[in-house]
Every structure is written in structure tokens, then in C-alpha cells.
Amino acid sequence: MKKINYGRKSRIMENETLNKCCCGNSEKSSCVEEKNNLCPVCEKQGALVKNITVKHLVLDELTEQVGGNDYFLCMNDECGITYYDTESNIKFNKQQLKVPIWFKKDANPKYACYCSKVTEEQIINAVVKDGATNMKEILKITGAMSNSQCQKKNPLGKCCHQIIQDAIDKGLSMK
Fold this sequence. Notes:
Layout: H1 8-21, E1 46-49, H2 51-57, E2 71-74, E3 81-85, E4 90-93, E5 111-113, E6 118-119, H3 120-128, H4 135-142, H5 150-153, H6 161-174
Antiparallel strand pairs: 1-2, 2-3, 3-4, 5-6
Helix pairs in contact: 3-6
Domain BFD-like [2Fe-2S]-binding: 113-166
Pfam families: Fer2_BFD, zf_CopZ
Protein name: BFD-like [2Fe-2S]-binding domain-containing protein
């Protein structure tokens, strides 16, 4: 990346960019250059996922293979690879996980909330059949987000709020 220096303003913009790339997280491992997060199979961009998440979601017999590095989750719905580490060249496919990845092709069940085992279908039904229109109503009807262990149970290692909101929006568009 070519950097053009505009003095003080450039440094401020550079700091803002660094802060944004880490989502407020100051840990160095959260800021990885874009070229290092491409899936080794489909070459699409991946999302950084903490090591603890991968260790909890791979099959028990594969836990030791995970090692100590953080991983990337391949975000391509067509690709059979889930987690990969470009440094150690370790990769796991869909069949090597305890749970299906909600956005991957043929995911069944398609969880929106992994902690409470609430599916996208349950959320859509709560909207279409039960008349829910917002997050608060969905949480009350489905019990989603009531057993928060996102770092260990959600494939991204973070809160499922956005996935649930996307399912609510999908249900509202069906009305």
C-alpha cells in the first residue's frame, strides 16, 4: 500500500484506520494484513477468529492439531474450507466441525444463535407467524442470546446479534 504523507492529518487518519481494523481491540494479532487472510482453497477473504473458538468447534479428535495460532474463517459460502491458518498451513473443512457454519451451502441446521441453538427458521417463523418485529420480541419468543458463550460456540467467536437481525429482516421482507 502506498502512503502519501499529508502531515498531521495523515497520522490522525492512519491512527483512525488502525483503530477501526481492530474493532476497538488493541491486540496486535487482530490486525493482520489483507494478503495473509485469503483462503488457501478458494482465495477469498477470511474473517479473523480467535484460537479458543476453533479449539471448541473442531471435532474433539482434532483439537490438538489446532495449535496456538488464531485462524481465519473462510467466508465463501461455496467453499468447503472453514478455518485455516496461513502460517502453519493447517485447514479444517465443514465435516471436521461439531456444528454447521450458518452461511455455508447446505448448512443444516442453520443456526442464527449457536449458544441457545436457535435457527434462522425459528426467527423467521417468530416474525411471520408470531408477529415479532424487533430484537426484543425475537429474544423473548425464541430464547436467543440467553446462554451467552459466543467466543466458544459461535463460529465467528462473537455475538450473534447481527445474524439474528439479518434473519429478522428476512422474515419482515416475507410479510
